[in-house]
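Collaborator request, handled under Task 6.
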Amino acid sequence: MRVELTRFKVNKDKSARVDEWLKMLNENMGDVVQTLEREQMKLEVIFREVMGDAEYLYWFSVQGEAGEDVNTSTFEVDRKHIAFHDECIDHGYGAHDAQPQVVMVPHKVAAAMDWDNPSADVVPFERRELIHYRPE
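Structure tokens returned to the collaborator:
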């Protein structure tokens, strides 16, 4: 299982387009949710932050290791996602991944996600890489 938090910078003057895109996602949640299974996405949350004149989007996700890439999807909502990303994300800024240090998941939730022991894969702080839980 991968636990990720990634920050992307929004291109200047694209805030209205971000509004439209987030509205489209919220209004088409049935279409959005159907794409998650093929990606083995257990949970995906998009956050938005504005600091000064800079705007950022953050993706938080819990995803299985064998999930399919969004670029191979046949779903229209995924094609819209890729087009949005190409148009609105500052590729020069890059993707900035936060490094998880502790993963806390109640046993019932972990079992529902087929992830029986997320704390078994907590790594020492100095290792600074993504946590991946692999059941034995």
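The cover message to the collaborator said: "Residues 8 and 95 are 5 Å apart (CA to CA). The mean pLDDT is 85. Please let us know whether this matches your experimental observations."
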